[in-house]
Prior knowledge:
With 456 residues, the protein is α+β, with helices and mostly antiparallel strands. The protein has helices at 54-72, 148-195, 203-249, 335-338, and strands at 86-92, 96-98, 101-110, 114-116, 125-128, 135-136, 141-145, 252-254, 259-264, 280-284, 288-295, 307-312, 321-331, 340-346, 363-369, 373-377, 384-385, 389-394, 400-404, 406-407, 413-416, 423-425, 438-441. Helix 2 runs antiparallel to helix 3.
Amino acid sequence: MPLPAFSYFAPVVTPPRGPASPFPRPPRPSTPAPSAPPSRPSGPSRPSRPWIPPPLLLIAAAVSAAALLTACDGRPGAMPQGPGAMKVQVFRVEPGTRDRTVELVGRVVAREPVLIHARHEGLRVEHVFVEAGQAVTVGQPLVRLDARALRGERQQAEQQRLRAVAQVAVARAQQMQAESRWRGAEDEARRFAAVAGGGAVSEIEHRQRRTQLEQAMAERDATAQALAAAQADLAAARAALQLADERERDGVLRATVAGIVSERRVEVGTVTDAAAGPLFKLARRGDREFEAWVDGSRLAGLRVGDAVDVTLTPTGSVVPLTVRGKVRAIDEALADDSRRGRVRVALPDAWPPDAPPPALGTTATATVRGAPVAGWPVPATALQFDPEPWVYVVEAGHRVAKRRVALSEDGAVVLGGLAAGDTVVRAAAALLSPGQVIEPVRPPAVSRIRLEAPRT
């Protein structure tokens, strides 16, 4: 094939002159004039060769080479195929299972904390008796409040009770007097009625006695009602006094259960407020569990009831201890806003004699092992997302094809979209395009080395 003619015209470049120097150039030393060159044969004069910069020569050579390659190949920019195809690592899909294991880092907390609230608002804290982490017994004082107002209420209730007692005494005396007058009026009316038929007394006197009896009866009933009202006031005063006694006793908050003070939220001078939450949190003895905050995406691989191995250091020991527990609760709702969820693992109630229950707040690690997931394990480098997951499958003729897949919750196992025996691109999927021909390369098998104990 004849090569295409190529020529170029390079402009004549004259080096620019620099600015005139302000200093006069020193005169050159005089030298003898050279002897005249030998005379040449007469003929037409030869033009001088123009000066070409080296960079232009390099550019011209590159353009010539590109034109030569284009002329030799009818398809411009053709991709090499066959032996020149891109070498890509692949692997053969085989069914398998993957252990669903999640590592958690958290701390030991109370399983069901007991909250201690102040029963009255607006009272100032005078003294705090316990600290966080301290063991307490039932009824032990925790904090004393400024109960001067409560003591004033009790004094008022006591005075009201005394007044009610006096009123009851007066009403009882009046009722007894009215009862006595009624009985006397009844006896006299009975006697007048007995002799009224014989004419010993007049009808007018008989009517007067009956009127006196009716008045005595009404007075008796009125005093009885007054006594009942006074007794009711006395009962109310006694109830108010009992309530005031309880309110005064509430000035000292006491532990309702035996355990450990897991949290203290009160200081001397604090004013009690129901909106501020509990003043103390108590943990019952032996009531422990493991708590961890994890990323919301990792909660999908956990289930309530999964077995958990918790490694921690018991109180007073330096040797780590591993105990078996179970996932008790998974608070996924907390992960909506903060993208973090809480996992609570129930620890055993009984601990070895030489390993007492761990202290609250002890740092621990947990390994959650769920049921194995069956599918096709694939390396992470083979997965692509757009945003759905897919892989490149090598088909006939070593051409790659894009195929959608379904992943497990942890994204490590393909659950659908592949079949046993499929050849999948392991890496460099981002550099390929559908339908491209590749040269599959399988990674070399890793030799297994058996470690033997040194002989003694």
